[in-house]
Design goal:
13% strand; Methylenetetrahydrofolate reductase; 380 residues; 2 domains; TIM Barrel; flavoprotein; oxidoreductase; two-stranded antiparallel ribbon; alpha/beta; single chain; globular; 40% helix; Mehydrof_redctse-like
């Protein structure tokens, strides 16, 4: 069912903005309404062809509430997140623009934030970024002028205080929904919840987690021991105890595994990814490992969605984007809800009018040329 974006107190009124919630983008609206949100990651092309982006985005039509535009993931060069967002907003999609602090200083980043908001980007995910040694150009010079925390604070100041970090005033602040990444599976385990709290204090309004392949580990947060209680504490329970789930929307990262070999490679090479032996054994015992990887992802979603405090999932189907629709459909997380498809923006009428002018100009020129040719030559 395609549900309208309505105010629960007055269907004829717009949703009232909450403090710090100024984007009113579709992802924020879905989360504020208490719906289980679904986001996905668009694998950036090694190409300057816009059609490559459009074809990849079309796979997600009607199945996700936001599309992550990745910013040089793995410290490798691809089409930029700003460029991908420009293309996606042009076609009415709801991108989540990732910003990595590795490649740009605060001056460039603040400019990109303004440009992105002007283009219609309403969601920004703030990342520190992988080190350059992780990529295929390890000789590149890293920047890291900011990190995730200071980037969140920078954009929050721009949005809420209408000023740059220098104190110079903005005439029109960016209207964005701020996000960050979390990794519940990486040590030190006893610091992870407190790091989430710091990101929320800096400005994070939603977070997307690293891949989850071990639901008990996600639930128990690496079986974190809290000394003062002397027992194993549930990570999500700690989040709730601290009230963090009331201050921030938590989306659990999920994704299909293509094979047992892929699972082993990820476990060894992707920081913070924990894949239990039982998952690898299940893949090895399957006749069709790719299909079994998809089934495992669906099973994980069905477990994760029942954990109190989890507001949605972030599907990362690297080179398996064609499975996203099946995964979302078969998991039943939408409960009959159909995410918004392409939405018009306030700039669309202006662009459409300008396009009409552009298309009409050749016709006018032809008429003028024809008229000039029909006039008699008065010169002797």
């Amino acid at each position: 069912m395609n549900q309208a974006d309505t105010n629960p107190n007055d269907p004829s009124a717009l949703l009232e903005p909450l403090p710090g919630h100024s984007s009113l983008g579709r992802l924020e609206r879905i989360l504020r309404r208490g719906e289980f949100a679904v986001t996905a990651e668009l694998n950036p092309p090694d190409s300057a062809n816009p059609q490559d982006v459009y074809e990849r985005a079309a796979i997600f039509d009607g199945w996700v509430d936001g599309i992550n535009a990745v910013d040089a993931s793995g410290a490798n060069a691809h089409m930029s997140s700003v460029g991908i967002c420009a293309l996606l907003t042009r076609m009415g999609y709801a991108p989540i623009m990732q910003i990595s602090c590795r490649d740009k200083n605060r001056i460039a980043i603040q400019g990109d934030v303004l440009g992105a908001s002007a283009m219609g980007v309403q969601n920004i995910l703030c990342l520190t970024g992988d080190g350059v040694q992780a990529g295929d150009q390890p000789g590149a010079k890293p920047v890291f002028d900011l990190d995730c925390m200071s980037l969140l604070e920078t954009i929050r100041i721009m949005r809420d205080n209408s000023k740059f970090l220098s104190g110079r005033k903005l005439t029109s602040p960016p209207t964005v929904f701020l996000g960050a990444a979390i990794n519940p599976f990486a040590p030190p385990q006893d610091f992870r919840v407190h790091r989430l709290a710091k990101k929320i204090a800096a400005g994070a309004q939603f977070v997307q987690s690293q891949y989850c392949y071990d639901v008990p580990m996600f639930r128990n947060y690496m079986q974190q021991v809290v000394p003062e209680h002397g027992n194993i504490r549930n990570y999500m329970q700690q989040v709730r105890d601290m009230g963090l789930d009331k201050e921030c929307f938590i989306l659990c990262g999920v994704g299909p595994l293509a094979s047992a070999r892929t699972a082993r490679w990820m476990r060894s090479n992707v920081p913070g990814v924990h894949i239990p032996d039982t998952i690898i054994e299940r893949l090895e015992g399957a006749k069709d490992q790719k299909a079994e990887g998809k089934r495992i992802c669906i099973d994980i979603i069905n477990e994760v969605k029942e954990i109190e405090g989890v507001s949605g999932i972030h599907v990362m189907a690297y080179r398996q984007e064609e499975f996203v629709a099946e995964i979302v459909h078969e998991s039943g997380v939408l409960k009959g809800r159909r995410p918004w498809t392409k939405e018009p923006t306030s700039m669309d009428e202006m662009v459409a009018a300008r396009m009409e002018e552009i298309l009409e100009e050749p016709k006018h020129l032809l008429h003028e040329m024809a008229g000039a040719a029909s006039e008699p030559d008065t010169q002797e």
